[in-house]
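chain below, 289 aa
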Amino acid sequence: MDQSTPSAWVKDVTDRDFQREVIEKSRTVPVVVDLWAPWCGPCKQLGPLLERLAAEGGGKWILAKVNVDESPQVARALGVQSIPLVLAFKDADIISEFVGAQPENVVRQFIERLVPDEARRLVGEALQLAQRGDAAGAEAKLREVLTLFPENAPAAVALAKILAASGRDDDAMKVLDDSTATGSAAAEIEQAKAALRLRGGVNGDETALRARIAADPKDHQARIDLGRLLSASGQFEEALALLLESVRLDRGFDEGAARKAMLDVFALLGRENPLVDKYQRELSRLLFS
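prediction:
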């Protein structure tokens, strides 16, 4: 199947127009050159990915696709020995390159180094405003980012933290719920939701909650609140132990609130954390024994 998919940001380039479409054009906008051939299997994997990223870029960079079989002069001039070969041109010079079909995250990093990420810049400006105490300005800037880039997880998480810090937990959760982030970015959103649920609605401070549990070991609400409070301050192992004990004593209390809190801690810590493995096994043993 023909790999070519011409669009506003994707161009088929040959020996005849390489100078104009790549060298000259790179003086005004970065140009990524995809050197490929119809018989090249890895090229068929890489080409559509580059085309999709070019479309996402919306003109911040141009993808120039060169069929080396049909453009031998370009292939010789660039010293092509293996394909797919991807070259990044800026100001008429090659500034970076890679060979072979790379994973999407590697290709995205290659593009991000070539084209500064506008969303990242705006999030950085918002965080600077927040550090200077201008929470309203930071909020406005982050909402601007999310209007332009609704999939941007760092902007959503940063805005949620700012809102939660001013007691607007419901607004913070809505920001996270509205995020269209996918993949690893979606996991970042879920972690932020878990952190927000854990810190919200806790009644009492640590000393008072410990006193309530000492006076009544079956005070499940105090045990759950203390577990959530400790999680919010990073004391995860004690928090999980408290919550697990609450599940053991009464797994159905408040519609399984202790179990739900443990799941939030697991989400916050991530699957690779050894505490997650340990307490997931303990929780499963209690629930299914």
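The domain at 10-114 is CATH 3.40.30.10 (Glutaredoxin). The two ends are 55 Å apart (CA to CA).
thats it, cya
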